[in-house]
Amino acid sequence: MAHLLTLTDLSLAEITSLLDEAEEFSEGKYWRAPELFFVANLFFEPSTRTKCSFEVAERKLGLQVIPFDADMSSVQKGETLYDTIRTLESIGVGAVVVRHPEDQYFEALRDSIAIPIINAGDGCGHHPTQSLLDLMTIRQEFGAFRGLTVAIVGDIRHSRVARSNAEVLTRLGATVLFASPDEWKDDTNQYGTYVDLDEAVQEADVIMLLRIQHERHEEKMGLARKQYHERYGLTVERAKRMKDRSIILHPAPVNRDVEIASCLVECMQSRIFKQMENGVYIRMAVLKRAVERGMENGNHLKKWQVVQ
Amino acid sequence: MAHLLTLTDLSLAEITSLLDEAEEFSEGKYWRAPELFFVANLFFEPSTRTKCSFEVAERKLGLQVIPFDADMSSVQKGETLYDTIRTLESIGVGAVVVRHPEDQYFEALRDSIAIPIINAGDGCGHHPTQSLLDLMTIRQEFGAFRGLTVAIVGDIRHSRVARSNAEVLTRLGATVLFASPDEWKDDTNQYGTYVDLDEAVQEADVIMLLRIQHERHEEKMGLARKQYHERYGLTVERAKRMKDRSIILHPAPVNRDVEIASCLVECMQSRIFKQMENGVYIRMAVLKRAVERGMENGNHLKKWQVVQ
Amino acid sequence: MAHLLTLTDLSLAEITSLLDEAEEFSEGKYWRAPELFFVANLFFEPSTRTKCSFEVAERKLGLQVIPFDADMSSVQKGETLYDTIRTLESIGVGAVVVRHPEDQYFEALRDSIAIPIINAGDGCGHHPTQSLLDLMTIRQEFGAFRGLTVAIVGDIRHSRVARSNAEVLTRLGATVLFASPDEWKDDTNQYGTYVDLDEAVQEADVIMLLRIQHERHEEKMGLARKQYHERYGLTVERAKRMKDRSIILHPAPVNRDVEIASCLVECMQSRIFKQMENGVYIRMAVLKRAVERGMENGNHLKKWQVVQ
C-alpha cells in the first residue's frame, strides 16, 4: 500500500527501514524526486510544526508543494474529503498529507484513493510521523528499543501520540508505563501499565510527556495550571530523580510550567527540539516512500475514457 | 489586450488557438517562461479547485507564485482592487489571476492596469477558463461543436458557467438547451431554449449540470435535497435515457445526490474529473498567453520619473 | 548581530551599505544564497504589500519560503513567539521575518534566538525596511540627505514610520518637520519640529504622508473623511504650493481622498509606487545580510547533545 495511515499498518521491518532512511537524511543523504512531482498538505486543524516540518521535508526532496487553505476550500461548500482529494489527483497532485479532526477519516479513502495519503494526525487517533520521530530520537540515544522503559505521561485518553507509540514501542520490545490523572486514563489502550508519576519518572529511560490539548478534549480538569503542574507535570523536583541517562520527550507545542517546568524545556536531558529536527528527516523518508510508490502506481491520470 | 476577462472578448480564432495549445500541453508539450516571472492568485472567494488548478499550471510553466491571502490583505483595510494590483505590479508581479464576488469587477481595471489580469470568476458573471475547459472536454469527445446539442441544467440565473458557455457554444455552432426550475430561469440570457429536463437529457450530446450555489444565491428553493434531485437532478433513471455517446459535465464541486446521483459522478459517461485535468492544460495555455503578452508590454516598472 | 530589529541599532555606515546594495539590486545585480536556505514570514497582522514584497525579494535570492499561517499556527494554542521561532529553527529555517502587533516583541528574542530575525513591523514601534526604502527613494532623487527638509504629516503618535524615520533622517543630517492634528502629536519623539501643514508643504523637499491607521489607534478623530482631507490631507490646492523638485511619499495602503487627493497618488511628484518597487531591493539587501550572517553563526542545528 502506498498510503501511510497508522504505524499499526507497518511491519517492524518497514518501520526500521524508514528509521534507517531518516537517519541517512540526517547525515546529508541527497535524494530528489525524478520529475515534477506535486504534493498538497491538507490541514483541517491548526498545526505550525507539523505543517512546516512537512513543507521543509518536501522542499528538500525537490517536490512542488501546492498551497491548500482548508478555510478557503470547497470543504466549506460541503464537499467530501474524497471529492477534494480526487480533485487534487485530477489536477496532477501525486500525494497528499492530511491532518483532520475526525478519528480515522482515512478509512473511507483507504481503498478508493489511488494516490498516496500520508496521515499527519486524525482526531484522537494516530499520528504516525510523530511516532516515527519519537522512535528515531530514542534510537539515537539508546541504539535499540528492547529492554527500554518508556513512560508516557499526561492525557493518555485523548492523545494520538499515546495510542500510536504504546503499540509500536511494545512491538519493538520496550516496556510502556502510563502515568495519568484518572480522568484521562484510557481503558482501551492495552499497551501500557498505569503507575504513579513519581515511580514513572524514576524508572523510565524515556519520559514522554503529552500535551494537554485544551483545544481538543471537552472535559475540564478543574485544576489551575500551577496545581496541574505540581500533581501531574515534570517539575524541577521530579526531574532531579530521573536516571542519569534518561531523556525527556514532548510532541510540542509545550505548555510551559504545565506539563513541564519552563526551565527544563531546553535542559541537558531534553530532546524536545531534537525531536523537531528529526521530524524533518522522518518526513523526508515517508515522502520518498510515497513518491516512489505513487510513481509505481503510475499513470492514474489516464484512466478516464475518451470515446473515439 | 493582454487580459483574459470574458470569452466574449475573444474571437473564435483566439479560442481555437487556446484550445489547440491546451491540447498540446495535455500531450506533454514543454514551455517555460524565459525568465523569473512572478504571478499572484487573488482569490476573494473560496475555491479549492480553481486556485489549485492555476497553481499547478503556474508551476508547470516555471512561474514564481507569490502567495496572496485575501483575508490578510490590505483589502481588509479598505484598499481598492486597483491599488492592490498596482502594488503587486510595483513589486514585480507580472500577471494576476483574480476571483472576486462582484460582477464585472474588472471593468474598473481593464484600461488602467498594465499587467495581464486573468479572470478566474466574477460574481454571477464570467469564468472564462471554466468555459474553455468545458469546450476542450467537448472537443475531445466530438471533434467539433457544430451540430452538437448541449443541455445546461440547473441554476441558470446565478451561474457564471451558463452565461459564458451558452454564448460561446452558440457562436461555435452548437444548439443550447436550458432546463431549470422557474425560479432560476434567466430572461437576460438569449443563447438557449428552455425545455423540460427529461427532454433535455434525451436530446443532448452534452449534459452540462450546474452547481446549486447554496453559498451564492439568496432565494431558497424550499425543496429538500431529495425532492430537488427527483425533480431537477440527473437521477439514475434519467441517465438511462441519455444517448449512447452523450457525456456528463459538471463544474464541481458536486453536491452528490442533488444535481447528480452520487453513483453517476464517476460513471462511464461522466467527464467530471476529466474536466478538472483539462483545466490545468487550459490554464497553462492562458497563462502562457499572459506571460507572452505581459513581456511584450515590457518594462512597465521603468515608468516612474526620477528627477535628475 | 544578525538580527535587523530597528534602524537605531545600525550605524550610518551599515545603513549606507544596505542602501548601496539595494541600489545594485535595482540595477540587476545577481546574488543567490549558496545552498538550500529556508526562511519563514511570520505575519501576525494583515499586510499585503510588506509580505508580498518580502516574498518577491526572497524568491529573487533563490531562498525557500516556508508558508506560515499565523491564524492556523500553534500561537492559537497559546505558544510563545520564542517557542514558535525555536521550532522553525529546529526544522531548518535559517531566518525569520516577523510582523507583530506588540511593540518591541523582539526584546524577548534578541539574545535568545540564534537565527536572524528581520523586523517587518512591531506595533507602533519600528519598521526598518520601510524606513530604508524611504531613504533609498529620497537618495535616488537628491543624492544625499544633508540639508534636506523632510515633512512627516499625519498620525505621528501611532506611526512606526514616523518613529523610525525621524530618528534616522536626523542622524543623516536632514531637518524633520512634523505636521499633525493635536490628538496625534507625539511628545516622546524629539526628532522633529511641529509646524502648520501649509508651512510644511511649502518648505519640504520630501512630503512624507502617514497612513491613518483606522485599524490600529483607538481614538476617533471625530472628523468625516472629507473634513480630515481638507484640514490635514494633501489636497490638490496644497500640492500646487509644493516646491518644484519636491516629492511625495506614502507608506501605503493609501486612503484615497483622506491623506492625499486620489488624483495625486500617481502624479508626477508622487513616488508612492516607486517606494514599493524600492522595497523589494531593500528587502533583498536585508535578506542577503541575514543569510550571510546566519551562515556565519553556522551549525546551530548541531547544538543538542546526544549522549553517546
TrEMBL record, chains A, B, C:
InterPro entries: Asp/Orn_carbamoyltranf_P-bd, Asp/Orn_carbamoylTrfase, Asp/Orn_carbamoylTrfase_sf, Asp_carbamoyltransf, Asp_carbamoyltransf_Asp/Orn-bd
Binding site for L-aspartate: K77, R160, R211
Any Pfam family matching the protein: OTCace
UniProt pathway annotation: Pyrimidine metabolism; UMP biosynthesis via de novo pathway; (S)-dihydroorotate from bicarbonate: step 2/3
Entry GO CC: cytosol
Enzyme Commission number, as recorded: 2.1.3.2
Enzyme class, broadest EC rank: transferase
Residues that hold carbamoyl phosphate according to the record: R49, T50, R99, H127, Q130, A252, P253
Reaction(s) this enzyme catalyzes, per UniProt: carbamoyl phosphate + L-aspartate = N-carbamoyl-L-aspartate + phosphate + H(+)
Domain (Aspartate/ornithine carbamoyltransferase carbamoyl-P binding) ranges: 3-140
One of the protein's GO biological processes: amino acid metabolic process
Transmembrane segments: none
Keyword Transferase in annotation: yes
GO molecular function ontology, one term from the record: amino acid binding
Annotated PROSITE patterns: CARBAMOYLTRANSFERASE
Residues of the Aspartate/ornithine carbamoyltransferase Asp/Orn-binding domain: 147-288
Keywords: Pyrimidine biosynthesis, Transferase
PANTHER family: ASPARTATE CARBAMOYLTRANSFERASE, ORNITHINE CARBAMOYLTRANSFERASE, MITOCHONDRIAL
NCBIfam families documented for this protein: asp_carb_tr, PRK00856.1
Complexes and interactors: Heterododecamer (2C3:3R2) of six catalytic PyrB chains organized as two trimers (C3), and six regulatory PyrI chains organized as three dimers (R2).
Similarity annotation: Belongs to the aspartate/ornithine carbamoyltransferase superfamily. ATCase family.
Protein name: Aspartate carbamoyltransferase
Lineage: Bacteria, Bacillati, Bacillota, Bacilli, Bacillales
Name of the gene: pyrB
